[in-house]
Amino acid sequence: MTSEPGRERVLDAATRLFAALGYDGTSTKMIAEAAGLNTAAIAHHAGGKRDLYLAVMERAHRMERSALEAAVADMTPDAAGVLNLLDRYIDFCAAHPEIPALWMHRWLSDAADVAHLESLYVKPLMRMVTGAVGGLLSDGADVEYLAWTIVWCTHGFARGGVLDGDGRRHGVDDPRELARFRAHLRGLVATALRLPGDEVR
């Protein structure tokens, strides 16, 4: 019988490597070394590389779904509620940058043979969020593209950050840049909501 602590240890190591190198760039041997185990132990705890990847993505989805469901449940049907939903999504990605990294690898055709995850995980969350905020946007605003713009920007910032004048990268671990990024996205959403600037801060 597989021990839960052993499986979690393997999944943690696999998550770090898949987030850093992608599915295609990660081997079972690398995961075994990162977990401090041999490949036989990896197979015992989690199966093969594809099984590991599916388990990592399912665990990441459960975390994201739980966070978004709670944020949507708490959302008030007004501009402040939409901005709070945005803040909580940014906070989630900042606290778990490995999850945006996993999805960004997929956007670059990583794990192309595992094609069903977007339909299984992404579409339901997108429907939930766009359904919650769609009626609050100004006429003509494309709620789906607004949601995707937030996802693209937040995942990109969580993964790569921004470069300063000296070429140094700053991201979610830099409080000043995170606050600047948050203010920028809040302004973007405020435009879709047609909010005056003082309501955005």
Summarize the entry for a quick read:
Helix content is 70%, strand content 2%.
Describe the structure.
This protein has about 200 residues and is mainly alpha-helical. The chain has one domain: Tetracycline Repressor, domain 2, CATH 1.10.357. Helices cover about 70% and strands about 0% of the residues. It has helices spanning about 5-20, 30-35, 40-45, 50-75, 80-95, 100-105, 115-135, 145-160, 175-195; strands at about 160-165, 170. Helix 7 (about 115-135) packs across helix 8. The radius of gyration is 19 Å and the shape is globular. The mean pLDDT is about 90.
Shape label: globular
Instruction: Please tell me the overall pLDDT.
Output: 92
Q: Please state how the strands of the largest beta sheet are arranged side by side.
A: 1-2
Stretches where pLDDT is under 50 for at least 5 consecutive residues are none
Keywords: DNA-binding, Transcription, Transcription regulation
Protein name: TetR family transcriptional regulator
DNA-binding region: 27-46
Organism: Actinomadura litoris
